[in-house]
Amino acid sequence: MSATSGRQSRREAILLITPGVALLIGGFLFPAFQILAMAFVPATEDAGIWSNFARFFVDGYYLGVTERTLRLSVIITAITVVLGFPIAYIIARSGPRLRLVLLIMTILPLMTSVVIRTFGWVIVLSRGGPLTDILHAAGLVERNFALLYTETGIVLAMVQVLLPFMAITTLGAISAIDTRIEEAARTMGCSFWRSLWHVVLPLSIPGIVSGSLLVFALSISSFVTPSLVGGVRLPVLAWSIYQQATSTLDWHFAAAQSVFLLLLVMAIIIPYLALMRRKNG
Amino acid sequence: MVNRVPFAARATAVILGAAILFFMLAPLAVVVGASLTAGQFLSFPPQGLSLRWYQAVLSSPAYLSAAWTSLQLAVLVMVAATVIGTPVAIALTRHRLPGSQIVAGLFLSPLILPTIIFGIGILIFFSLYADGPSLTALWLGHTVITLPYVIRTVIAVLEDSDPAVEEAVRTMGANWWQRYWHGILPQCYGGMAAGAFFAFNISFDEAVIALFLRTPELQTLPLKIYAELEFSPDPSVAAVSTVMIAMTVVLIVIIDRLLGLGRVTG
Amino acid sequence: MRIAAYGLSALALTAAMAGTVASTAAAQETLVINSFGGAYEDAHRELVIEPFEEMYDVDLQVVTAYSADMLSQLRAQAGNPQFDVAHFSGGQEVIAAEEGLLEPISRDELEYADELYDFAVEGLDNGVGPVYSVAAVGMLYNTEALETAPASWQDLWNDDYAGHIVLTDISNTYGLLGLLMINQVHGGDLDNIQPGLDAVSELLDRSVIVRSSPEIQQNFAQNDAWIAPYAQDYGHTLREAGLPIDFVQPEEGSPAVFITANVVAGRENTDLAKKFVDFSLRAEAQIGWAEALRYSPTNRTAELPEELAAQVLYGEEAMANLVTFDPQVVNDRRSEWTDMWNRMITQ
Q1: Whole-model pTM above 0.85?
Q2: For labelling alongside A142, which of B109, B219, C137, C218 has CA 20 to 30 A away?
Q3: Which subunits sit against C, judged by 3+ Cβ pairs under 8 A?
């Protein structure tokens, strides 16, 4: 990169990024603007342009919904990081045959339609479902124990479908690591765990960052699984938006909530990206 | 393969791996089980065993043509997202652009905005500026929401890869075109493959944007499932999912035989 | 290298495929309508769509879109609509008419208008289409779990049912009407739904609240549900699927869900669309709806065989006993009620 002159590098970069930016603006930002602009159109004539946002802050209800949404997304992302790295490492370092089997098993949850996959979870988590049976047999819980309609249930069901995104993205980064670096660390007397911690993990950071961004963004905007597994009494922001858009048909308020959601997530993601970039060189 | 992996590490890997995979596959086992029921409704354990719902799905022209439409759409989306997303990822990692973190963040925004809002927005857009919904509109809509996957997966592999390879290609006198083609692009393959898979998968399972942008001729598989849920919620949807699981396994094994998946994933 | 080559050839293939899927212009006249999918759509085709196609030599294109999604689409396409006829079952026609999305139909444009009960054509003055079916909301109960059928809305508070009650969220029309009915039984009215909310809040700890029909099915099939306020037609769907479910109309009455056929404004074929709406009102079709899905006819000349009549709310008297809530008020207040409901259930 150092050898490429700054000006040429920038010209190439612009050439590379233009189709994507054009698609983002023309295919996403502009169409999204068609409805997001409604956030600033007051529902009644005498209200101000911020009235749709004001409704969001009028009492603790929507703040509570936002808090739950953020908290669950952070927990889900953290769990996928903790589980995704070892799974990716195991896949990357397995023999070809085992690797294929593990890879297939990891991505299978993605191959079922979301509605039917969630049905599977509702069964597993419900009163009298297999999970209760197992835990009850182990003497851990009561007979009527159920994780359906709990936040724990939402986290479990979301982690299952989002883990593949984390595992595959991290796998990409681990695969790009030259195994000779790891060998070298080991020959120089590093223990397996030390080389994993000091060599592999730092080099996997770009994959983990990418994976965590995907998982975080997806968990914050999904509504089918949280709504079916969490039930009506544990609403998340995306469900609230969906409800306003299709049931009460208040598109102004739905748009205001969406604008709020977008800004909130950008305010988290952009500093996170900058921080990770600096740490990583 | 690194030698001398301690026993404790191997044992941990086996136990942890098995536990995670059990967690991942248990709900799918429920779905497969429910699809084998002889009864009229989704239940687990199944009420008697039968393949009637597979027969119902596989002999239904509506299901088959919807699956075919979805397959075509998903391939179109996958190709477009990969071809457009990969250069973006290269630009964001290989070049210093002003405000690149913000641009990188903005490229994630299609994932964050709930699809219901984007679906309404893009339908308004095509009603105002084009002749209403169409396959092209749906292709565009799906490409936009799958682009972030390709960009992130390619960035993940590029940030780790070795710029020295490009340097070597350059010193051998390659022009800029050859430098990308022989130097950078091969390093992206792993990320591109993962991103393409995600793009295909997301498009194949997406119902909300498809609901807004479909035309009477354009029935995708998720829309067919949507159409069955309210008034005929029978186990055929579980059978569809099971068929998809089986097809995925077969497809991946075939791709592995033909291309050698090992090379793509490392 | 190889992958890049695949990519390029795939791109070429892409362009070719995009071309082939593009729609072909039909020589016949065409109407685009929505239906509700599954068994509903099958019945719709058999009773109305196919006979109409034959009689008028037109091509009907059916798109599955439930009421709320249908209204969202009409609204987003305002100015350039892609539908000719819109069917709604959740009162959305009132909003659509208010927003100018519907073409008003006058009474004398409908040949069958005179055969309908008054309530079915009352909306015409406000620009909404006629009611071609009615779904009654009452109690679904598990006939194996309950020895005696529930008789009153008050039975929901029977302590014996605790833990086996399924309620429906306000985002679902049946849930909204159920709430309004509970409210009325507890002394509230459309200006004050607090009595209804208070009553439901007493049930929160002993019931589950769901949002959609499939969840109702799942609760009866899998989660030991005994009783749920819901619609008669869905009770029939569950019974057909082999579940021991029966429907009962509580003594205080059943709220009515109107299923309407509306003509979309701004399309070329509105005359033909009106003919289609009219065609939906025929007694034959309405008898068919009762047979297939247990909807109540709105055409007073529709005669149901005795056995069927026992399973469907039917006839002059039964229709008069249906509880209706002013759709205009319901739509104006829906957003406010939703906020109150959401806050109550998440407390």
Answers
A1: yes
A2: C218
A3: A, B
